[in-house]
Amino acid sequence: MTTESIRNNPLKRITAVFRGRRKVLDPHKTSLGRTGYRRLQYATLTGLALLAIISLHTGRLDISSEEIRSILWSAGTGIPLDSELLSKSLVFFQVRLPRCILAILVGMGLSASGAVYQALFRNPLVSPDILGVAAGCTFGAALAMVIPGSSFALVRIFAFIFGLAAVFSALGIAKAVGVKPILILVLAGMVVTSFFNAFVMILKYMADPYNQLPAIVFWTMGSFSRAAWKDVHTLFPLVGLGLVVIVMLRYRLNVLSLGDMQAKSLGINPTMYRVVLILISSLIVALTVATCGQVCWIGLIIPHIARTLVGPNHKQMLPITITLGGLFMLLADDIARSITAAELPISIVTSLIGAPLFAFLLYKNRGSGWI
Amino acid sequence: MSLSCQGLHFYYGQHHALKDISFEVKDACFCALLGRNGSGKTTLLHCMNGILKPSSGTLRLDGVDITRASAQEIARNVSMVPQERSEMFPFDVLDVVVMGRTPFLKMYESPSQLDYTMAKKALAMVGAEKLAPRNFNRISGGERQLALVARALVQDPSTLLLDEPTNHLDFKNQYLLLNQIKTLCRKRGTRVVTSMHDPNMATLFADRVILLKYGRIVAQGTVTDIMTEEHLSDLYETELKKIDIGTGRSVFLPASVTT
């Protein structure tokens, strides 16, 4: 088996990486060849499509492939269904399909934001929570939950507003300090996170322990169980637009990851790009967290996996990150809703898979010179 | 056409780092900046590259005011080989070199096949074509230096700024690199401004020399005028002797080992 064939075959490469043989087959190069990248992209896209089909079959109500076919056929032709299929059709169109699309969107959005944050902060161990988005969202959601007579719509609006407010406070603090922008942003993020967490604790302490407190706790663990078409209608255009902008600017991420001084001498205004990209990715994170609660680990680990597979060049790494993010989120949601009779919160699943996988990746990447 | 600096001052907060700097670098001129640690060499280079904004004074490149130009405009004309390098993602060396094409790309563009060809040529110019597929974080300090010089060359600059380019390089590569830069300077008329620690290197390669002491220019001019025992002994605050080594060349060495 030649080195070239291993390098260009995504499956062989994945096994080589995970069996720790990458050094043997390719001692110096971290990036994937052009052919290898294309094949990997096809493989992940196919995987995502297959998983989406499987997800549509998964759930408490048994819907077979034949039934799905006749549901789709009737939707296309307008031929009425019998009463049993009609209820299954309702579950299929009103529950499973939007949930599946939403999970993919959230996974893609969170992992792309993670990749952007890691490039901007020049650190592969950064997650999109670093500027306090998640803490702000949690505070907003918790606040809306304890306000008397509030609705779930208000929970989402508050989560979104406070998530962005947290990021703006961190950016504001960093601007006021003015020196060493990257370091100060990280520290400002810690300040903001801690501050909002304190307020969340106050709210938890004061919340009614039978209704409000469990609601707050459940929300912080995330779930797609409330997924509906109107969420898809909000998220699809906004997250989609954010992803398009990030993908278009992805080559600039390489240059920005060299640090402000080198970025500037290569003709890029680092401050402008940093603010724009932070705002776009924070918007995506706030939207997703406001829709489905907190989802741990996706934003941290997916870019990491993508980088392990195709190398650090964002030109290739970012598209792979996005497809893998959708794939992984969908898989986690499938597990969350099928492993037990009652549905598990999504963060339990993502953390249980993500944390050990991350430890494994740290171990595997120890020779690459950046850990 | 020239790079000219008039009455430039720079403050780091309260610290007056550059005081009333004025000089001019003409086309095809190799200009060496000499001075002790902390004399302001790097600060001056950063001002010329637009990384730092001078507190006062003018800095013009072919008549364009550098202090007001955009980063992209500057990067299309001036390229810089930095002295301190921070950790980065494990990019391939070729990917690092091709980033020198960034100022010529549109906001949403990535480097084309042509850009990659240019990057390979630039690596060949510094004698490092074999480094192309290697992991930038896993090569030696000197090899990184060569790769960064190649990146600066890919920018196809009219002015090339180098911050102690011979750091980390072995004895042969020091001469090889400066020779290449000198050739570039002659053939393409590139203006070269480089900070240096070795006065003998400056004597060998430079056309003009600027001596910086405590942020002030103490002397500037041609190599023959400036590279004298008096000037250098004053600059380094150490007594230096000029020793003739035949074939019309001479070197500077400290008069005694203890100071």
Strand line-up in the sheet with most strands of chain B: 6-7-8-3-9-10
First and last CA, distance of chain B = 44 Å
Shape of chain B: globular
- Class from secondary-structure proportions of chain B: alpha/beta
Describe what is shown at a glance.
Chain A has 371 residues and is an all-alpha fold. Chain A has helices spanning 3-8, 10-18, 22-25, 34-57, 65-77, 83-120, 133-146, 152-177, 181-206, 212-220, 229-248, 250-256, 260-265, 270-292, 298-310, 314-338, 346-364.
Structure report:
The complex is a heterodimer of chains A (about 375) and B (about 260). Helices cover about 75% and strands about 0% of the residues of chain A. Chain A is an all-alpha fold and about 375 residues long. In chain A, helix 4 (about 35-55) runs parallel beside helix 16 (about 315-340). The longest helix of chain A is centred in the N-terminal third of the chain and has 38 residues, at about 85-120. The radius of gyration of chain A is 22 Å and the shape is globular. Residues about 20-30 of chain A have low confidence and may be disordered. Chain B is an alpha/beta fold. Chain B has helices at about 40-50, 70-75, 95-100, 115-125, 140-155, 170-190, 200-205, 225, 230-235; strands spanning about 1-10, 15-25, 30-35, 55-60, 65, 80, 160-165, 190-195, 210-215, 215-220, 240-245, 250-255. A six-stranded mixed sheet of chain B has the order 6-7-8-3-9-10, sandwiched between helices. Chain B has a four-stranded antiparallel sheet with strand order 2-1-4-5, covered by helices on one side. In chain B, strands 11-12 form a two-stranded antiparallel sheet. The longest helix of chain B is centred in the C-terminal third of the chain and has 18 residues, at about 170-190. The N and C termini of chain B lie far apart (about 45 Å). The relative contact order of chain B is 0.16. The model of chain B has no long low-confidence stretch (mean pLDDT about 90). The interface of A and B includes residues 119 and 368 of A.
